[in-house]
Amino acid sequence: MDNVAFYRIYRGAGSVDAIDFATPIATVPANGQPIRLAAIPGGWPAGVTWFIAVRSVDAAGVEFAQPRAIARAEFDAAGRLLPARPGPVSDLRAAATSGSRLAASWRYRGDPDQPPPARFELFVASAAATLESMLSSTPAAPVTAEPDAENPAWVYAWTSPGLASGLWRVAVRALAPSGAAGDGVDTIAAATPSRAPNIPLLQAEVQ
Q1: Would 84 be classed as within a structural domain?
Q2: Domain count, the chain
Q3: Do residues 42 and 107 share a domain?
Q4: Does residue 60 belong to any structural domain of this protein?
């Protein structure tokens, strides 16, 4: 790759697999300077997670198929780049425990281009509640992320206060040090009887 003459820039919305390598959005020289993109048709609509890929092209015009780099980016309505956010949690589980409480556990596996979380927010509501209403309510006490937050073997745990008998929904999301909410929320439903026997874990629902 020492013979790189310039770079072609590509993008895709929503995932790396969506990157359109048939349509470059820019061509920039390989001069060792930071890549700065000019305005492009359609802009960078807010509410979309963009994946931007850089491919090297040599002096003969041969493009290397393996991207030199892939970056993730989000923009606000004014076109300003938003701070990077942690990814969603995974392996969320919940079950009844003593005192009519719920015990929840989860893991965090972030992508390399996402910052590790500073803490996790938990929300508990009736199973009939919508995710939107849950996230607009007051969260439970936050759980601090460990320094090795992206260690897939690390399991986080939280226990709710006593709850009434019934079916409940637990939602967990990661928060960046800036307080920005993570990219996605994981939810699960679990029953809390008046006397809490051992109950099987229910199937997690990813929103």
Answers
A1: no
A2: 2
A3: no
A4: yes
**Helix, strand, coil % in the chain, rounded to nearest 5:** 5, 40, 55
> Is 9 contained in some domain?
yes
Residues 68-81: tens digit of each pLDDT: 888 888 888 887 88
**Based on the domain organization, do 99 and 166 belong to the same domain?**
yes
Tens of pLDDT along 119-140?
A: 999 999 998 888 889 888 999 8
pLDDT, residue 34, reads 78
The predicted structure's pLDDT at residue 152: 64
DSSP 8-state class, residue 160:
-
What's at 162, amino acid-wise? G
Q: Range of 64's domain?
A: 4-73
Query: What does the alpha-carbon distance between residue 190 and residue 87 come to, in Å, rounded to a whole number?
Result: 24
Q: Which residues pair with 104 in a beta bridge?
A: 94, 158
Backbone angles phi, psi at 172, to 5 degrees: -135, 135
Beta-carbon contacts of residue 33 (< 8 Å; ≥ 6 apart): none
Q: Which residues pair with 50 in a beta bridge?
A: 13, 73
Structure tokens at 166: 């019934």
- Using DSSP bridges, classify how beta strands 119-126 and 143-144 pair: parallel, antiparallel or unpaired: antiparallel
CA distances from 84 to 9, 114, 187 (A): 20, 6, 22
Q: Which of the listed residues 73, 101, 118 is the one where a domain comes to its end?
A: 73
Among 73, 97, 126, the domain-final residue is 73
| Tokens at 174, concatenated | 């990661």
Residues 69 and 133 in one domain: no
